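Quick log. Single chain, no ligands specified.
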Amino acid sequence: MYLTVYSIAVAVFWATVFTKLAASFRKRIQDLRYFSLYPFMLVLFFSTLRILFPLELPYTYIVESWKILPWIQGFSRIQLVSFGFVTITPGVLFLTVWILGAAVVFCRHMQNHIRFHRLLHSLPAASDSRLQRMLAEADPQGKLAKAKVIVHEAVASPALSGFLRPVIILPDMYFDDEELLGIFLHESAHFKSRHIFAKLAAELACICFWWNPLLKELPEEISHALELHSDKAVCKKLDKKQQLKYLSVILKVLRNASRPDSLKAASLSLADRPDKRNMEQRFQMILEDHYQKKHKPYCFATLLALLVFLLSYAVIPQPYSEPPLEETVPLDSVPVSDYFFVETENGYDFYRYPDYYIDHLDHPSQIYGLWHTIKIYKNLEEVN
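-> predicted structure:
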């Protein structure tokens, strides 16, 4: 397995394609009806996985580019500024901006998460015994038995946070027992499925590739997919009347969510994004009973998504380059008349007639024993 700049570029391309496909698939309610929710979530998972592991695999086929990629490679090596042993090129400049930008975005996320968790630890647990009773009813397995339940006015929507020590945050408003049951079922589904890892993985992908605006959809699509998945888990536990009560809770929360929410970092909320289309889809999936229907093409769609994911590693383009001449053929039989040098500001570009770029050299003597027999031109026009 290898990591190269070209494998990273291909990974960004495929992650963008997967994200766009998932977004297009999700927006069509008829597709979710027919294929179910899981293929959509699987494509989003592959999109995140593809960009976090931008590698060349053993079966990857390298396609050599003779003009475009060699030109880009040559441009990235142009010397802009030189300070002693340090040479600034467009490639070095882009890499520096990339790393610094990712560091800044990462620090901002970490600052928000640290503030969030410090605030959670400083807030006291709710003293209402009814909350613990309804939480135990929603989670009979006891996986949330040690969960801390907080009620705070800064919260606009019920939310879950934490990996090992979960914290459930509720807005400072009244919920009856059935409403609390729906809320706790939703948040327990988030915790049991470890949805927080999927959300953080999407955030990490966007941090690493902050300069790609096309990937900004990925965290939003994953957040919505996680809400749909939790809704499905809730509907399996509730009858039709209780499901309607659950939807009324979401509406109640949405009315409360019209004001700013200061506790959003690193949490999964019941309705933290009052997006009209997304909320309409959540309601439609429940009201039309799509979570209870069996989907026959589910396995086929899953296998198709897996096949496309594996094929995304199949081909990676790279610029054409030749190994040193003394490694390819004997020195006494090298057709030196097929090659030439072109002078540049910081060395020499090595070409093969008529205009195939091979590599940049600091000095012709890097072509051991042959450089004195190869023609040197001042520019490509002189070659022509």
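The chain has 14 helices and twelve strands.
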